[in-house]
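URGENT: need a sanity check before tomorrow's submission.

F., can you look over the Biotin-dependent carboxylase-like uncharacterized protein record below? I want to be sure the sequence and structure line up before it goes out.
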Amino acid sequence: MTDSAFVVVRPGALTTVQDLGRVGHAHLGVPRSGALDQPAHRLANRLVGNAEGAATLETTLTGCAVRLRRPATVAVTGAPCPVTVDGRPVAWGAAVRVPSGALLEAGAAAHGVRSYVAFDGGVEAERVLGSRATDVLSGLGPAPLADGAVLRLGRPRGPVPAVDGVPHRGVAPELVLPVVLGPRDDWFTPAGLRTLSTGDFRVAAASNRIGLRTEGPSLERARDGELASEGMALGALQVPPDGRPVLFLADHPTTGGYPVVGVVPERYLAAAAQAAPGTPVRFAPLVRVSWGPPAGRTVPDGG
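Structure tokens as predicted:
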């Protein structure tokens, strides 16, 4: 119903519909996708009385603006930003009642990259493989927001919980990422692994929902050639031919042939999602774990 919807007035640099993602389809070549900063997404939904898996809007750097076609309770979390209703400032990180016909705007991020806009009832985009998430790599899910687009809202579940204040971890001036080494750390020289732990890396402007790219020194390789394609996990730290690590995020490819020097545990990826271009990055390698192949499987030598 168009009277239970909103109209996009300003889509921003990249605003997508996101939920908790489509789990269990990697064997089909479909990544999980979903909100990059899942704690912020979950919090926004809780503030407006939704289940944590309801779909929100994920903005990128410049925010977005929408005009409501029904009254709605709205909350904006994630990257702190100015929030206005018909030009009047309202609270960030809190439930706000927005009347029908009003213009809601989440402005440019003051710190961080991605803000999350939740509406009571959630965004009712069509489900694809069980999820409403936009996957920018495969094109699954709803298209990124565009001027004039109309998106439906679901039915509110009930009363909005009373909240005095919400936690916010803030955005650190440096992104520190623990890395479990392997499975292909032996493709790099000892000097290359030292570069990983001591190099002066920064977040590259080319970063996106697929991966956080880095600028800085190259990791020295111990082997030439590339691997046969193998599975890529969320948080994989892949090293392409230029030697600069790429951290795979929610829309990452499910296979790849460049060596993975390590994997960043998932609980640290929300911080990576909020690291703006130019942010210093420090990798902290942990003890290597066994990544041996299942019995009967031969690991290709890639040479």
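My own read: The chain has a mean pLDDT of 92. The chain is about 10% helix and 25% strand. If you see anything odd, call me.
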